[in-house]
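> @MW can you paste both from yesterday?
MW: sure, first one:
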Amino acid sequence: MVENGNVKSVSVSSAEGPRTTRGTGPRPFLKWAGGKSQAFQELRQFFPNLKDGQTYFEPFLGGGAVYFGLSPKSAVLSDLNKSLVFTYQAVKDHVEGLIAALGRLPPPASEKDYYTARTRFNRLAARLSTLDSSQIVTFSALFIWLNHLCYNGLYRVNKKGGFNVPYGFYRNPTIYSADSLRVASEALRSARVMASDYESALEGAGRGDLAYLDPPYDPVSETAKFTSYTSSGFDLTQQERLSRVVHELVDRGCKVVLSNSPSDRIKELYRGYRFERVAVPRAINCVGSRRSAVEELVVIA
């Protein structure tokens, strides 16, 4: 246990994707860098129970492991990544069509198949706001398919917003589970899912509500930088802005749990709040034996 600088560390794992199991409950249908599927069992102790009428907010949705693990009755889920949000909306509203579209894509595919699909995906992404419902389903199926075949399940874009992660060279990858998608769809029906900046998404959070914030982490070294989930990135200025939003949420009576790196800058930004640390294996290496554990900071406010 850590309060105001006194730290207790616990070890967890951070793999995320359809192979993760927690009984028959909802679970992530995407692989996601920094995902919290395995870490959730350790993280859940830091989340207070929500009462009727209270809402859960998660504005850096990613793979959604914490949302699916908590399964709150009311939620606002958001992400600045429009491709990700459109895919969640397709799972929520068009799951049977999505499953059918996934079934029409090549089974565990060649490198050529992958890059052909990636080009098709980026063409649809370039006019995402104009797609009809059938095209959205096709786009979302491609998102899920590429996610499970790309290198380490990364989502990275170039300056023009094009998805540019290379082929992952997996043996017998699991692309999707129809049953898991249906369970996720049912869970998402109690949530509002939107593409939004985190500050806008949190505007409605108030007394008794709960916000979980899992932003791109403050790098502990220059080589640790990875902020290109969207073309805008997430730098120190954004970390400072986020800390101001957290302080405002606390002033409004909203409960906050935040994950980040244990950098000196992050500890200073959240000085005065309760700190916990968890040790999580790195997921960004295709060789499992090279995935050394890293320490993450949990801020509870």
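MW: second:
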Amino acid sequence: MKYLIDTHVFIWALMDTKKISKKVTSILENVENEVYISPISFWEMAIKYQSKKLDLQGINILHLPHIAEQYDFEVLSPEPYDYVSVGTVPQKENHHDPFDRMLIQQAIRNNLVLLSADSKFQQYEENGLQLMW
């Protein structure tokens, strides 16, 4: 199977694996699965780190792509269509996060199951999002 991890899943994989569900832990540990991380997640972490909303507990922000590689997470290369087609994902009344909407679009467009604990993502299943937690 092919999966895309939400930003918080990557952070928890690095710092607090107890927050990851057993189902998702099993997926991440199964070497037969292809697990992707989006560059959008790196951008989101950089912005939150700079604004002091993310504490990396001593991890150098510049090392995150290499760390993802060490965890066998493949970087999903967005194409220009990913950026322009994000506007085709309906903006839900209670969910306006542009990083999340891009991850949702990438998961839908690339037929990936999005691994996320964010309950707001469930409302996008009607738009084709495959979600698991």
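> thanks! The chain has six helices and five strands.
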